[in-house]
Amino acid sequence: MIRKLRGTTAIITGATSGIGRETSLRFAKSGVNVVAAGRRKERLEELVGEIQAKGSEALAIAADVSDEAQVQNLIHKAIERFGRIDTLVNNAGVGLAAKFEEQSIEDFRRVMDVNFWGAVYACKAVLPQMRRQPSGGVIINVSSIMGKRGMPFETAYCSSKFALAGFSEALRTEVMADKIDVSTVFPGAVETEIFQTSANQTGLEMPAYVPKFPAREMARIIVQDARFPQPEVVMALDAQAINFFNTLAPGLMDFALGLGVPFIEGFRRGAPAAKRDSGNLYQAASGKAASGKPVAGGRARHKTSGG
To answer: Which residues touch 296 (CB under 8 Å, ≥6 apart)?
Structure first.
């Protein structure tokens, strides 16, 4: 089913930078009314101003998706302003690099609260509205290739993304009869601030040297997915390669990753010492960058992330 976009309304969480910001701009370019949500109000207002300056409609709503009441308010305000919600993009996310036995349960839970429960809250709040609409709607949940293949030192992040993938798959079949499409996007490394703002509890500085897929191109894929929804989208080449080899030989992937851990540890011991920090887990990162540029509030690290 091909859906028309012009004149519809889309909510994008995590819209202050990276994938979320570029997706908001791309939707606006397609004639969609944009509801941009995130924790950094000044960034949201800047984004909305940019969209409105180009002749499109947009609304900024500050919200921490880990708070169910704030998510419910986001959905309410969007309906109040535009009267409908046609697309929901659950993109907000935080990262945490740490050995499992060294990280706190509080930090682990915080990653789940944002990456998984934030999407659950949004879906719960938006479904009644989408059911009332004759055309239904589209829900796009941005997971990660780490929602298909677990990686060492990323237990919390992988858990949140696997949970989101499973939730999306179950919900997809539950609501499809109501003309509601649920799609899961599994990005690899993308140009986002998560490389600078993720919590780093390894005690070591890690260079963010991984080649990254442009956030603008990922936004194009997400908007295309809203127009022609797919059950799953795995992008880009790095994610596709990981998914292919993990499907073909999961045991071999386990062996390779497990064998590599001592070498990673050695690499980290040789890396510049870095302060242990909580990144943007509890507070939004500061800085002026709007799309994947260096900002204060976190340490760079080697991570494959979708938001």
So the answer is: 285, 286, 287
